[in-house]
Specification:
With 349 residues, the chain is mostly helical. The protein has a single domain, classed as ABC transporter involved in vitamin B12 uptake, BtuC (Orthogonal Bundle), CATH 1.10.3470. The protein is 77% helix and 0% strand. Helix 3 crosses helix 12, helix 3 packs across helix 13 and helix 4 runs parallel beside helix 11. The protein is globular, with a radius of gyration of 21 Å. The protein starts with a helix and ends in an 8-residue tail after the last helix.
Length: 349
């Protein structure tokens, strides 16, 4: 790709993210007045008297919308980066990071937390339970990877992992549905459980920002480290082995990174489908298949997608908020169908 075009892609992507984030801070169930925000900020610094509307606007901005926008951006980045790594590892552009069952593990752990009443005792226990469940499922995937290890070919064992992931998703999904059914006699508890499991960004605090931010930082650093090896793997196993790439180690490392990224995202926002599928496709079309560039650009575009979806979910039926997952599912499913409907060109993108 021409350098000036790549530079243009980056500038447009960053500016779009900035615009969407600012819009997310200003618009919502109510529109924050710029004068009120300025007065609230000045008062916060101790420099001026304030009004009731300015104080309320400042509180809404700092305690509700900033942590919500940050959580949305970090979760979107994590899912998009996980999608890039999953598609690179499985050498399948239709692969999603949820194929390992990590998201389902986080969901069933969250359902258990609701069943046992942990989420009522301490709200922080819910994201921690979801994170622990997602990590446990990732460890299960790593165990399957180790047992299916083949010194000759990574392809058969990778297929084994994907099929196992489908089975894990189905099994844990059934378990989650059963647990939610058990809470239906208590509408308050089941409603909160469903609200979390459906996936949304309402009532997010700075603790969610920390969870998503720490896991994204870890995942980004580790993802950039394996980017070059994934580029070589894309040329074929024989080429990778001839260049001294340890395929089994690469697979285990990448699965672990995907698990950490998805675990943090699920813990912070529940399930947000299709983000890890569609964003890598868009980024790949814009800057090519180099994983180092893909990881970075997908992080920016994933953040943009989820922040925009959350903003639209708040605006479409205001003052009623829709879960952001409804928007990501609708966009993702449409994009997926369009991909499948495209005539084949005799190879993957």
């Amino acid at each position: 790709m021409m350098p000036h075009r790549k530079q243009s892609v980056w500038i447009i992507s960053i500016v779009t993210l900035a615009v969407v984030v600012v819009a997310s801070l200003i618009f919502g169930g109510s529109v924050l007045n710029w004068d009120d925000l300025t007065l609230g900020f000045t008062n916060h610094l101790g420099g001026a008297a304030t009004t009731e509307s300015a104080s309320m606007a400042w509180t809404i901005l700092t305690e509700l919308r900033i942590p919500r926008a940050l959580t949305a951006a970090l979760v979107g980045s994590a899912l998009a980066v996980a999608g890039v790594l999953a598609q690179g590892l499985f050498r399948e552009n239709l692969a999603s990071p949820t194929v390992l069952g990590t998201e389902a593990g986080g969901s069933i752990a969250a359902a258990i937390a609701f069943m046992l009443g942990w989420a009522h005792e301490n709200p922080l226990l819910l994201p921690l339970a979801a994170f622990a469940g997602a990590i446990a499922t990732t460890l299960m995937a790593l165990g399957i990877a180790k047992r299916s290890q083949s010194q000759d070919s990574i392809t058969s064992s990778t297929t084994h992992i994907m099929l196992s992931g489908f089975a894990i998703n189905a099994l844990l999904g059934a378990g989650t549905s059963y647990l939610i059914t058990m809470t239906l006699e208590e509408p308050g508890r089941s409603g909160r459980a469903l609200s979390f499991l459906i996936g949304g960004l309402a009532a997010k605090g700075y603790e969610h920002v920390i969870i998503a931010g720490v896991t994204l930082s870890m995942g980004l650093i580790a993802g950039l480290k394996v980017a070059a090896a994934l580029d070589v793997l894309g040329l074929g196993e024989d080429t990778a082995q001839s260049l001294s790439i340890d395929l089994q180690r690469l697979r285990r490392h990448t699965i672990a990174v995907i698990g950490i990224l998805v675990a943090g995202a699920v813990a912070a926002a529940g399930a947000l489908p299709f983000v890890g599928l569609i964003v890598p496709h868009i980024a790949r079309r814009l800057i090519g298949a180099s994983h180092r560039g893909l990881v970075a650009l997908a992080a920016v575009q994933g953040a943009t997608l989820v922040v925009a979806a959350d903003l639209a979910a708040r605006w479409l039926r205001a003052p009623i908020e829709l879960p952001a997952s409804i928007l990501t599912s609708a966009l993702g499913a449409t994009f997926f169908l369009l991909l499948l409907a495209r005539p084949s060109k005799g190879g993957s993108e």
